[in-house]
Amino acid sequence: MRFRTAIASIGTVLAVTAGLLVVAPVAPASAAAPTTGRFTPVAPARAWSGTATSKLTTVTLGGRNGIPSNATAVVLTATVTSPSAAAYVSVAPFGSTASPAIQNFARAQPISGTTTVGLTSGKAQVKVSAGKATVALDVAGWYGTSATGSTYTPLAPTNVLNGTVTTGAKRIVVAGKAGVPSNATAVVLQADVSRPATSGRLRLTPYGNNAGVVSLMYSKGTTVANTTTVRLSGGAVQAKVSSGSARVLADVVGYYAPNANGSVFVSAHPVRAATVAAGTTATKVTVAGTAGVPRNATAAVINAKVGGGSVGGSLRVVGAGLASSVPTQIYAKGQTIGNALIAPLASGGQVQAKVSAGRATVYVDVVGYFLNGNSGSGTGVDVSYPQCGKSVPTDQSFGIVGVNSSLGNTTNPCLQQQLSWAAASAGGTAQPKTQVYALFANPGAAAASVWPTSNAAPNGQSVTNPYGTCTVQSGAKPTWKTTSACSYMYGYARAYEAANTRGVANPGQYRWWLDVETGLSHLSDTGQNRVALEGMVAALKSSGVTQIGVYSTSYQFRTIMGTVPTASPLRPLPSWIAIGDGRLDQAQAACSGARLLGGPIAMTQYKTPFGSTEIDRNWSCS
Fold first, then answer.
1. Cβ atoms of residues 581 and 553 within 8 Å
2. Helix crossing, 526-542 with 554-561: angle to 10°?
3. Cα dihedral sign for 205, 210, 211, 217?
4. How far apart are CA 595 and CA 481, in angstroms?
5. Which of 591, 433, 608, 606 is nearest to 16 (CA)?
6. Close Cβ partners of 482 (under 8 Å, ≥ 6 residues apart)
7. CA distances, 352 to each of 70, 283, 287, 528 (Å)
8. What is the pLDDT of residues 579-596, one digit of tens each?
9. Over the stretch 507-560, which tens digit does the pLDDT of each residue have?
């Protein structure tokens, strides 16, 4: 549609979208995962090292170290050394307004943290929240479009290492164990170093690779944990420490493999999903359906942080109903420290958080999620005549098609092709897979090309008009006149035509939306506009339509319709709210916003980048 409301956006693109020229009927969506959003592991490499301050430093990661310039996201470990003040390190997509805390540290404390970061034109931005520090970024792989890339499968945490690791490489065979198949290309490990005798670095790398990258930085006597993604070599990884020896625990929590039935990654704007007062009993946190994560996500990429603990202990954040031998993180009394994880999302889309002793505050930030290839994006897409012959997404869970061209008395020339496209939607939401919308209009008698002169519908049948009889102005030269009765009939005629003459077969099979925008023709007299919209509703009902709603913004609807009386037949209608340029998490939040009428908010719409243009995405509020 037309809205361009100014809402800040970092320009993230849904990574599972693919192109389709809408010129012919479309086959049903494939069950195979798309090539976009797949993971390609790389040999561990130092991608950047430098001084970070509280001012953002732009870092180019795409086009280097085996990462293509069009990569949508990277998995990396940020290592902090010699910090001048207590603070946290943040790595976010270039241009993002968010500063997610990857890891917190005390003054002079060396520490590391792993995260997944979306890239904007191959770039990310780095900062520390206070002072300055040396920060190194080690990259383990990238997400993007790749026919040979791997999809992700989450696993219940299973221990694959529990023993002493020294400066000599310890081989750990993972493929063929713990649910990891023999063709896996990489694994995700949660690891901790328990009370090491010396300070040092744990390095988890592909077997046979002795890269000097850091998987986990630790201090003498202090247990610390981290999550890392490691490419497999001969089905194995290796573990070694930089000095002395240490006891290391590692759980495998997921794997990547070149399978068509796994999940693909979607980078999201970092969003705080919850702040939890955690205790020793697990507290559930709903992630799917909020925080920019669709309800059909298979896993969420989370930065979990603990702070303000009444006593020292361990934090565990896992998929609901799961347990892990490796804590998410270990913390001292009052310490703030975090870790990343990829949490499986079972039905209900929840994770759970608890601490081993006392009470603490747990912060759950979402930076991305995974989708199964046959489930669609979890979001809808709406299209109309501007998308004729152009590429549109094929991952939609539901589709909404405009029946009109640029005016309410014209036909969308691509209506049939676009209805076929919508019918191929993946489904899985509370929304009908295929819906339609028609444009509201009321130019008034003076501006209209055709204006009603009676209570007759376009098919000649008489219409019961609650506002009386529409007639012409009598006199020497009969003229049209704008009355409530005639405005009602004008709206009736436009909706009758939309349902019966534009090519919509069996209009009653669809949910219909009436598009109310200031860019469309309307009068300054809001009362006349209201009765025209009432006429549209009446015409749709007479055509067998039982599901009708209104699309607009609060401002535009109020400008055009004014205050709708309680007795108006418009009052029960549901709302479809547009927020303009935005993100999924903002569209989700808008479900709790102001309604247009008395009915619930059924959907929200946001504009998001798609290729070199934009596309309308829609979120189902139920």
1. no
2. 100
3. positive
4. 33
5. 608
6. 444, 445, 446, 523, 525, 528
7. 35, 5, 10, 54
8. 999 999 999 999 999 999
9. 999 999 999 999 999 999 999 999 999 999 999 999 999 999 999 999 999 999
